[in-house]
UniProtKB/TrEMBL annotation:
<keyword id="KW-0819">tRNA processing</keyword>
<dbReference type="GO" id="GO:0000408">
    <property type="term" value="C:EKC/KEOPS complex"/>
</dbReference>
<comment type="similarity">
    <text>Belongs to the CGI121/TPRKB family.</text>
</comment>
<protein>
    <submittedName>
        <fullName>Tp53rk binding protein</fullName>
    </submittedName>
</protein>
<dbReference type="InterPro" id="IPR036504">
    <property type="entry name" value="CGI121/TPRKB_sf"/>
</dbReference>
<dbReference type="GO" id="GO:0002949">
    <property type="term" value="P:tRNA threonylcarbamoyladenosine modification"/>
</dbReference>
<dbReference type="InterPro" id="IPR013926">
    <property type="entry name" value="CGI121/TPRKB"/>
</dbReference>
<dbReference type="GO" id="GO:0005634">
    <property type="term" value="C:nucleus"/>
</dbReference>
<dbReference type="Pfam" id="PF08617">
    <property type="entry name" value="CGI-121"/>
</dbReference>
<dbReference type="GO" id="GO:0005829">
    <property type="term" value="C:cytosol"/>
</dbReference>
<keyword id="KW-0539">Nucleus</keyword>
Amino acid sequence: VQLKEQPYYTLELFPECRVGLLLFDEVRNAAQLRQQVLKGNLPAILDPIQVLAAVNKAVHNHRLQKMKTHGLYSEIIYNLSPSKSITESFRRFGITDNDTSLLVITVDLGGGKGCDGGTDDPGIGAKLAASVEGRQLPIGELSLLTDVCKIKKFYKVTEEEERLGGLLDAVVCRMAIREAL
């Protein structure tokens, strides 16, 4: 796979952190990749903002040592879900053997500290992406791989909510208030 430049985002509350997002379609080796690392399942991802909200919450919980899961990447997957069930979160957002589209998420916590407590490998996104047998897409094409009906059903978004604030706002609000429900 010839890699395009990976877009990086910074988290407003954690400006030293860099988040990379790589989008792939026509993936032929999902089963092999699943054994390597967990990544985001696309039909339920609407926008990079949704992912960044989950990453922000995961980094915050990581810094406070209050994660619900055992690792930062699994915490990101958990935080994408409106459900308090870790198993349900992985079922909805984890990679399956038959997936043909996926979003690779990399997080650099800054200061040379990796997500697992070890040192960061700045080329981890490129290494992961190089093992994907598929076509890399610009992150702006994420919405083309999204199943809006699934998102509305999974997040239980009403027509009124969507009309008043938009689907993305409703989804991010569900993610944010999960612990309060």
